Amino acid sequence: MATIRDVAKLAGVSTATVSRVLNEQGGVNSETKQKVLDAIKKLNYKPNTIAKNFRQNKTGTIIVVIPDITNTFFSKILLGMQDVANANGYNVLLCNTNNDVEKELEYIRFTERRGADGIIFLTARVNYTNILELTKTCPVVVACEYIDNLDIPTVSINNFKAAYEATEYLIKLGHKKIAYINGPKGIVLSRDRLRGYKAALERYGIEIDEKLIFEGDFYYESGYKHAKQILENGASAVFTASDDMAAGFIRYCIDNNIKVPKEVSVVGFDNIKLASIIKPELTTIAQPMYEIGSTAMDMLIKLIKGEKIKNMNVVLKHELIERESCAKCYKIL
C-alpha cells in the first residue's frame, strides 16, 4: 500500500503539503495541489482515517438514537441521514431504544465518553436536562420535534398546523363528530397535534367532546383497539396521529363490515408507504421524511466542524394528501 511519503516523493513536495491538500487546509497553490492529487490517483493512495481521527481526537462516527427501529416512519429519515453522513466521511451508528429511557441514557453516557463525534435524537424520551448537559461535551441535534426553552438545533414540521388542517379538511366535508387518536402523552408532537385538532373544532364552532379523544401509541394495535368505542360514540370521522393507527382503525371497520369512507372517514399522519397500499388508500398528512433526516445530519456535521448554524429551529413543509378514505358526511347528527 502506498504511504503519504510515497505521494510526497512522487509529487516532489513535503508530507506536510500532502497533508494540507488531504485536509483541505489551504496554503497550497493550484499547480502544487494538482501534482499532489495526480500522485494520489496514480498510487491509489488511501488515507488512514483511523489514525487521522485519532490525531484529531475524532471517531468518524455519529450516533442516531431511534425510539423503535421497527417503526417504518423512520426509514426514509434514516436514509437521508445516512446519505449526508457518508458524503461527509462519517459512519452512522444506529442505536435502538425500544422507547426505553434507560437505554437512551446509556447512549448519552457513551457519547459523553467520546464514543462518537455527535448525536441525533429522533423524538427524545429522556428528560431534556440530560440533553442540555450532553451539549456541553458533544454536538446534538433533535429531529422530528423541538425542545421548549432549550437552544438546541431541531428539525420538524409544524405539527399544530398539520393537525389543524387535517381536522379542518374533515369539517369541510361536513363532519362534526370527529374522533382523534393521539400519540403518547408527554411528547411534544403529541401535544401540538392535539392542540391543532382542538383549535380547528373551536374555529368552526364545534364542541370538543373528550369522549372522542383517545391516547394511542402510534402503532396499528392502538388504532384497532380504540375503533369500537369511537364508532359506538357515533363519530362519522376519525383523525389519527399516525398512519399505522389509521390502518388499525380501518382494519377494525373491515372486520366488522363498516364501510370506509361511506360510513366513517379516516385521516392519518406521516404518509408512510402503507398509506398508498391499504384499501381504501389513506388520506394523510405527508411529512418530508428524507429531508428531515438529511437536514438534521447536515446541521450536526456543521456543529462538529465548528461552523455556525443560521437557523437553529428548521420547520419543513407538510402536505395534506387526499386519497380514498374520506367522503362527505351525510349523517344526521
Report what the structure shows.
The chain has 333 residues and is of the alpha/beta class. It is 44% helix and 16% strand. The protein is built from twelve helices and twelve strands. The strands form two sheets. The protein has a six-stranded parallel beta sheet, with helices on both faces. A six-stranded mixed beta sheet has the order 7-6-8-9-10-12, with helices on both faces. Strand 6, helix 9 (188-203) and strand 7 form a beta-alpha-beta unit. Helix 5 (73-87) runs parallel beside helix 12.
Summarize this structure briefly.
This protein has 333 residues and is of the alpha/beta class.
Descriptive labels:
single chain; about 15% strand; 12 strands; about 325 residues; alpha/beta; six-stranded parallel beta sheet; six-stranded mixed beta sheet; elongated
Structural class: alpha/beta
Shape: elongated
Largest pleated sheet: 6 strands, parallel
Taking all Cα atoms into account, the compactness measure Rg is: 25 Å
- The percentage of residues in β strands lies in 15-25%
